[in-house]
Fold this sequence. Notes:
Blueprint: E1 5-13, E2 25-27, E3 34-38, E4 41-43, E5 47-48, E6 53-63, E7 66-67, E8 70-71, E9 76-81, E10 90-91, H1 106-109, E11 113-114, E12 117-118, E13 137-138, E14 143-149, E15 164-174, H2 176-189, E16 200-201, E17 229-230, H3 238-241, E18 255-264, E19 275-276, E20 292-293, E21 299-309, E22 316-323, E23 330-333, E24 358-367, E25 371-377, E26 394-403
Antiparallel strand pairs: 1-3, 1-15, 2-14, 3-4, 5-14, 6-13, 6-15, 7-8, 9-10, 9-14, 11-12, 16-17, 18-26, 19-25, 20-25, 21-24, 21-26, 22-23, 22-25
Amino acid sequence: MSAVVMEAIDFNFAFGTTSLALGSATRAGHAAAYKWSGENTIGSTAFTMPQNGFGEVAGIEIYAGIHDGLREHLDYAKIYIGGLAYDNQMFNEMVAPGLLPGVPDALGAAGLRHGAMATNLGIPMLMGGNPMDACPKIGPGKTLEVEVACPAAAEGGVALEKDMTVRVWIAKVLGVEKVKEVLKFQSDYHQLGYYNGQTMNCSFDLGDIEKSETMPLRSQMTNNPIKNLIPENGQFDPLEHWGKLPGGFDQDRPKAHILSVFSKQMADTTPNEWYQFVMDSNRVNDSWAQLSWNPDKRSAIKITHAAFKNPGVGTIKSLRFYRSGREIDQTYDVQWGKNPFPMPALRSPAAIMYAGPLRLPQAYLLWNEQGYIAMKDDGTASDAWSALNRDGAGVYVRGIEYELGGE
Length: 407
């Protein structure tokens, strides 16, 4: 039997039996019709990793039902591990569509699938990935749950009444010595050099040559990366240190986790003015949906992938990735037919999408500087998401958030 098992855990929400009301959230086990299936088991409580098991979450994909000709829309799907979750690690049916026969694989075309396995949460170290892919870690005896939420009517939501499945892909190894053996093999085989059998070297590069004064380039090439040894002193023990690896919930600084946010346009645009996704003037309804950041020297945001959802009615012309003090802004024409960052799926199942979210030509890095993502209409106001407009504009970003401590 292979040391590493890659498997799918399906969280099945039979909304056709027990619907989910507007503005509500639920998890498997909160109703008899909400269960998980996997490992030849059907569970009505949280999926639990064996006491000798070590896992990583590689990806998530969502199979939504069809209601009135549109995919049923989630406010979010969020992964909980041991009862904990990252508030800016959210997915929905448009940004993480499930793989279907006869339909183009948008995630795969974007490089976010390994065989059948979605990898929009990173390539697990257990499968040969880099530690800084920051896959969520599931330690021995820890629970894995998925929470799904229905948007309020004012956000274009309708009660969820069609069956839905959220598939979570994990890589798993049983046994302390076996997980160390697998990590040593993957580190050597892929020439990553992060594990020498003693310490996990999760140090990483960060910085920008253009902004060397406020954002110094820290790199392995110049022998000054952001240092992250696990443990700093002593020997790596999976029982003690698994959750301290990048993506885990027990990390010491520096920390890193996958950022995944879909932000809706919740106010009408002002013609020919940049629309920022911020709480001010109710342009977004939730703090986690803000696409505006002001990290200091002790934190950083790196956006690697993006997708833009054109509104069903109206035209958004431009998408801007602004950073303070830059000579050149990253600005793109995102009108229909020209959008370089298509959504993986749209509300209408008849709309066939071929790739997304796509990698930015250059990562959008913020460290000790302000930045935001904004869009601009074509001179005619674009209507906000609402009870009467269930197909508005939105932006999805994927990347990594860092907490650097005293760096």
